[in-house]
Amino acid sequence: MDFTNTRLAIIGLGYVGLPLAVEFGKKIPVVGFDINPARVTELQAGEDRTLEVTPEELKEATHLSFSTRLADLAECHIFIVTVPTPIDEHKQPDLTPLIKASETIGKVLKRGNIVIYESTVYPGATEEDCVPVLEQHSGLRFNTDFFAGYSPERINPGDKEHRVTTIKKVTSGSTPAVADLVDALYASIITAGTHKAPSIRVAEAAKVIENTQRDVNIALINELALIFNRMGIDTEAVLQAAGTKWNFLPFRPGLVGGHCIGVDPYYLTHKAQAIGYHPEIILAGRRLNDGMGAYVVTQLVKRMTQRRMHVQGARVLVMGLAFKENCPDLRNTRVVDIVRELADYDVQADVYDPWVSPVDAGHEYGISPVQQPAPGTYDAIILAVAHREFKAMGVAAIRALGKPEHLLFDLKYVFTAQESDIRL
Fold first, then answer.
1. How far apart are CA 252 and CA 247, in angstroms?
2. How many whole angstroms separate alpha carbon 173 and alpha carbon 127?
3. Nearest-CA neighbor of 379 among 401, 346, 353, 351?
4. Cβ neighbours of residue 149 closer than 8 Å, sequence gap 6 or more
């Protein structure tokens, strides 16, 4: 299909929306829309604070413009929604950003337009929650005047190998003809190819189980780590031995945060409970993974007590605050669980992360990261995120930040069992 005369709108310019807008913007007219004026100003200046897109890549997208103005969406034919879908304080899906984006599009929606959603949702959300909002604000009828599609995002923040164009894309549409069109649209930029799902609900379900599967697998390894710790067995040594079998999955224990793995399962369990099914395994995995921060602190306090180190008033350096290595993404990071748990023991925790914005850390979690930890200061050091900078420092330089008598807790297996004092 020829999309030369198609005008595209990307709603939401975060980790998902911006790379997509840039790729489409190399070929066809694209309006990148965001409600945050500071974000739009930054992108217009050729800068991306998420570090997902380089200034050079932004320049290559010669057909891409950025806006906060509703009027700039009026001439668009296809709208792609890439807004966040978080959970609230009760771990229930929060569709507010999705509904607000649908309201915005509904105000400019015209006959023949297509609205494609990429945000992670439970099966049925597109047609049951979003489409009625589009109808209400546009006065148009679904699958008569306008159409919908769903193509789940598969962005991996900080990963420079698996980019939006090199990850196979699942597509779907509200009618067979629209499904073909949506598939062809994405196929025009996705070099890895596409997979056309038979329905929007199938595509929604496929997305939500991708991260649910990872969450459950990590929960299993976390539980094994708890068991092996009680038995005095090194978990990493066990996993290396088991990993010699060709079909053993290479998961590792640790904190499970981020906007996907730590969130998506709750969308699925919410829908399951709504239809009368109580999911056992998924929620058990969530409970176990959500408790790992507290477990880390418990193990540290236990070891400090065994060493006759004063816990109350101790100083601990937490290295890393982002939810994963080599990216500035703070969304749903579970490192904060460690910081808060340490505070309950009256331990002063300093957080050091060269990747994150101090302003964002303060705004999101009330944490003021140290700019450079002082040598010889800390009773314990927790290596929570395996940033390349921390690996490059080496164990000697990291230990130099501790007092003569200190503990090094390596959550990420950056160093060997002999080089660290505690591991999961």
1. 15
2. 11
3. 401
4. 114, 115, 116, 117, 171, 172, 173, 174, 178, 179, 182, 200
Helix axes 281-290, 264-274, angle to 10 degrees: 140
Tokens linked to 399 = 């230990």
Instruction: Quote the pTM value.
Output: 0.92
Is residue 157 within 8 A of residue 51, CB to CB? The reply is no
Verify whether residue 130 is a known catalytic residue: no
DSSP category for residue 331: T
Q: Measured between alpha carbons, how far is 319 from 415 in angstroms, rounded to an integer?
A: 14
CA distance 385 to 372: 16
Residues 120 and 149: beta-carbon distance below 8 Å: no
Which residue in the list 76, 130, 260, 327 is annotated as catalytic?
260
Q: pLDDT for 228-269, tens place per residue?
A: 999 999 999 999 999 999 999 999 999 998 888 889 999 999
3 state SS of 72: helix
